[in-house]
Write a structure and sequence with these properties.
Elements (H helix, E strand, L loop, with lengths): L1 H13 L4 H5 L1 H8 L17 E12 L5 E3 L3 E2 H10 L6 H18 L8 H20 L9 E10 L16 E4 L3 E2 L6
Antiparallel strand pairs: 1-2, 1-3, 1-4, 4-5, 4-6
Helix pairs in contact: 1-3, 5-6
Protein name: DUF5819 family protein
InterPro entries: DUF5819
Pfam families: DUF5819
């Protein structure tokens, strides 16, 4: 029964708009996003025209009540390293952070204000990915109380250009607000 319901909901999501899909659109979207999202990029890829470098820093309060902020940690470099040194890299390793950022950017615009429940969910999703990745590479203990992301948008190098011209100049920089990190499952 669960399989039948799943197939029906995904079918209604990808099918052209009809009275049934319009009537149950909130329920369909609640089931499909973000885990079962469908797109046609396999058949008509739309490659990125920019690269994103995503960095994170964390903050935590010590026993005396002082706030300690960590240096910036390059999440994109960790992802790139995992892909570069793996002969069979996981699709998840290659795309999880990038897709989370793209989805966040689509739902929040430039002001970082969540205008829907989906936007709030995608903000939490991006925050959780960043916090888990930072925690996996942290020295020492303690919990992460807050996390902040900084995203550089960089141009994609033209084919055949020399890589020795130095790092590309960012097309844009975006500093997100501090987000409260909640323990897993809460």
């Amino acid at each position: 029964m669960a399989t039948v319901v799943h197939v029906l909901l995904v079918f209604l999501h990808v099918a052209p708009a009809n009275p049934l899909s319009k009537r149950y659109n909130p329920q369909i979207n609640a089931w499909v996003y973000p885990l079962f999202e469908q797109n046609w990029r396999l058949f008509a890829p739309d490659p990125d025209s920019t690269n994103r470098q995503i960095l994170a820093r964390t903050a935590q309060t010590d026993s005396r009540g002082s706030m300690h902020v960590s240096p910036w940690f390059d999440l994109t470099a960790v992802d790139n390293s995992a892909v570069d040194h793996n002969p069979f890299p996981s699709h998840t390793n290659q795309n999880l952070l990038r897709r989370a950022w793209t989805s966040y950017e689509e739902t929040h615009g430039g002001d970082d204000a969540a205008g829907s429940e989906r936007a709030v969910m995608l903000q939490k999703y991006l925050s959780n990915i960043a916090a888990e990745r930072v925690a996996a590479h942290r020295d020492g203990g303690g919990t992460i109380e807050f996390i902040q992301l900084r995203v550089f948008t960089l141009p994609v190098a033209a084919p055949g250009t020399a890589a020795g011209n130095g790092p590309p100049k960012p097309l844009g920089t975006r500093l997100l607000p501090w987000w409260k990190v909640t323990p897993r499952g809460k």
